[in-house]
Amino acid sequence: MRITRSATSRANPTSWVTTTIVIPSRVRRQLMRVLQLRFGEVPASVVARLESESVEQLESLMDTAIAVNSLAEFMTVLFD
Q1: Domain residues for 59?
Q2: Would 69 be classed as within a structural domain?
Q3: 6-41 pLDDT, tens digit each
Q4: 53 and which of 14, 57, 69, 76 could share a cystine (Cβ 3.0–4.6 Å)?
C-alpha cells in the first residue's frame, strides 16, 4: 500500500491535507479491465500472476497493457 500526503503551509490554519491510498486490489482490477477490454478473456495464468505483483509492478504492467498489440505480447512481458 502506498500513501501520499500533501498539505498547504503550516502557517495557514485553514490548510487541508489530501491523502491518497493506492490499494493493490484496485490497481489489479483496473489492469484486468484494460486487458479484458483490449483483448477479451484473460487466461487464469495471467490472473494468478497479477495476484502476486506489487503496486509498482502493476502500474508498470498497466503501461504495457496499453502499449502492446496483443495479449500474447503482454504475456511475454509478464512472464519474463
Answers
A1: 24-79
A2: yes
A3: 445 455 555 555 555 568 889 999 999 999 999 999
A4: 57
